[in-house]
Amino acid sequence: MGSAPASEHAAASDDVCAVSQNVYLPRSVQTAAKLLVVGHFAVGKTTFVGALSEIRPLRTEEVMTQAGALVDDLAGTKDKTTTTVALDFGRLTLNDSLVLYLFGTPGQQRFTQLWQDMTRGALGALVLADTRRLGQSFDAMGVLEELGLPYAVALNEFDDAPEHDLAEIREALDLLPETPLVRCDARDRISSTRALIALVEYLLNRTSDTSDSELEHA
Questions:
Q1: CB 134 within 8 A of CB 173
Q2: Which of 44, 191, 195, 214 has CB 3.0 to 4.6 Å from 156, enough for a Cys bridge?
Q3: How confident is the model at residue 4 (pLDDT cuts 50, 70, 90)?
Q4: For residue 93, which of 102, 83, 80 has the smallest C-alpha distance?
Q5: Is-contact 153 181, C-beta < 8 A?
Q6: Contact 91/54 with Cβ under 8 angstroms?
């Protein structure tokens, strides 16, 4: 068999280099931050992490079975055929020294203990919500509040979801005035990035306020 042309070897080499650059972190990275993406069943967490991750995201999706219908609320999820049973994992490098690790949690109530354990070491969480099933967001927010983990809320805008004023949504979810509430499309990288920025800015402001308070009492 003849050998491949040099141009093909060069192209293959370029592909390997491109993959390597995406997979491995640059040596300059000094800080890693862990953030959670939480929310109820079928709210779009896996899609959100996949849209943002610069590497091929780790997914633990399994095909849904009839047995699951006995314990999971499948209302409004007629097109959903798989579900996360452990976690989703993605990575997003913000600059030469900072990288974010995104952990998407399973949404079913029977996995609550699992994602409670995942909060260890996390700086905060982004709660994805669906206006068609807004009441189902309370469980996730309640757990985060019990654990003292700060969070922002992003409304994942499904095509058939009703639109409401953000002030009405804030009141319905009983959010604190300082808790960020934004809209996003989990399928869109730019939209998802804006939602994540809202969370990161909120966490940075909280850190700054805490530091200022400590200085005042020093």
A1: yes
A2: 44
A3: very low
A4: 102
A5: yes
A6: yes
Mean pLDDT, rounded, for 195-213: 83
Q: Which of 30, 39, 31, 50 is nearest to 102 (CA)?
A: 50
Write out pLDDT tens, residues 82-99: 444 457 889 998 888 889
* Three-state secondary structure call for residue 27: coil
Pair of tokens at residue 152: 């922002």
Amino acid at 156: N
CA 102 to CA 89: how far, in whole Å?
6
What is the four-CA torsion angle of 149, 150, 156, 161, rounded to 10 degrees? 90
Structure tokens at 57: 């995201």
Return the minimum-mean-pLDDT range out of 63-67, 101-105, 177-181: 63-67
Q: Give which of 138, 198, 127 is closest to 174, Cα–Cα.
A: 138
pTM of this structure: 0.74
Q: Is 11 helix (H, G, I), strand (E, B) or coil?
A: helix
For 87, other C-beta atoms within 10 Å of its C-beta total 22
- Cα–Cα distance, 32 to 85 (Å, whole number): 25
Q: Burial, 59: exposed, middle or buried (Cβ in 10 Å; 0-12, 13-18, 19+)?
A: middle
- pLDDT for the residue numbered 216: 58
